[in-house]
Amino acid sequence: MKAIQVGLLGIGTVGSGVYNVLKRNQHEILRRAGRGIEITMVADLDTARAQSLVGPGVRVVDDARAIIANPDIDIVVELIGGYGIARQLVMEAIEAGKHVVTANKALLAVHGTEIFAAAHRKGVMVAFEAAVAGGIPIIKALREGLTANSIEWIAGIINGTTNFILSEMRDKGLDFDVALKDAQRLGYAEADPTFDIEGVDAAHKATIMSAIAFGIPVQFDKAYVEGITRLAAQDIKYAEQLGYRIKLLGITKRTAKGIELRVHPALVPSKRLIANVEGAMNAVMVQGDAVGTTLYYGKGAGSEPTASAVIADLVDVTRLHTVDAAHRVPHLAFQPDAMSDAPVLPMTEVVTSYYLRLRVADEAGVLAKVTGLLAAAGISVDAMLQREAGEGEKQTDLIILTHSVREGTMNDVIAQMQGLATVLAPITRIRKEELA
Ligand SMILES: NC(=O)C1=CN([C@@H]2O[C@H](COP(=O)(O)OP(=O)(O)OC[C@H]3O[C@@H](n4cnc5c(N)ncnc54)[C@H](O)[C@@H]3O)[C@@H](O)[C@H]2O)C=CC1
Ligand SMILES: N[C@@H](CC=O)C(=O)O
Ligand code: NA
Fold this sequence. Notes:
The chain is α/β, with parallel strands linked by helices.
């Protein structure tokens, strides 16, 4: 049988990995897919570079629309990134009746509803394993492996760049900026790295996982997003003393009131496996009511790890494209007419525990005032740490770990504490997740 024809839109970090791995493993991939998979056209703005990557046998163009217009192309692989031209090209490819494979989480988290509806209408597949946790087959696990379960929560380290930066800062004492530059050089970072460090990329991925886990539409605009740029080195140190590591987590959870969808730094007990995930590695914990806790670990970024997921999608599409659309795995795991309207909760309704660091005057009665405010709000204290004030020092740090409380209540108490004359600087608050 003739090989399935693939057109690549963008041959940068991920695109070049796709080309190389597909070529290197072509025989094994053929044995799995039952049909050859061949990249016959590549579009990139830098055509000279693209041609040098793929050699003379592949047609290289600078206009991606030439690929979409080519009737011989069966699958369009979008590896340009962003919400702009990529959105137009994906929509045009779907309208042209092409299957689409993409690694573009930003696009799907923001415009997924429109894209999946169009694909459903046209009977084509949009596959996106690489969009969440790169090479880890987490979409496959959630959408196919765990279909027996009512998913309770997902918590993951789903941004390699920030995990790499946090590890380099802690282990090698590197400055934030130096570690970020290294992550960019290694091909982990987004074209705009503020997406990584401000938590936006992780929120894109958490948004996609929440849709698949709970059968809700992709709703990036409802996600709470907080990155790592305001983390202080001293909090990483205090957390360690208390038996915790700080990680940027993407969390989505089913509650009686609705769905939590949030990305923020969090203290995680050091003894949890996920607390020991270092460098650019990703890990996703999924809690199902039947299976219990499961953990998926691997490379979430980089050329070939991400290509691994893109090519797995190419194999899936190759195997399934002759199957009637109604019998394929639904894009968001649940049938389109069976989606839930469970609301995504505002952050004030999220229930979690907290790490608080207060810069306080080193004088009698401070502790009683602070704990009095917590007690009055019904917040119980889990652990406390007070740094010894140095010789002649008039201030010190007070660290408090709380038990679970509604975020809205915690906000009120923090505001009251901040009003105390003995609290001398803005209070630091980091959420704490026991993940058990
Ligand atoms: N780099 C990584 O580790 C991962 C990246 N991704 C996603 O994969 C996608 C691609 O990322 P990278 O390969 O890292 O980006 P990249 O910046 O290395 O590559 C993008 C390529 O697209 C080309 N391009 C830009 N505009 C174009 C246009 N109008 N027509 C044709 N080509 C165009 C550029 O010249 C470049 O070669 C993004 O959506 C990214 O979020 C997903 C998982 C991991
Ligand atoms: N910039 C992302 C790339 C993969 O999605 C990351 O750092 O994880
Ligand atoms: Na993946």
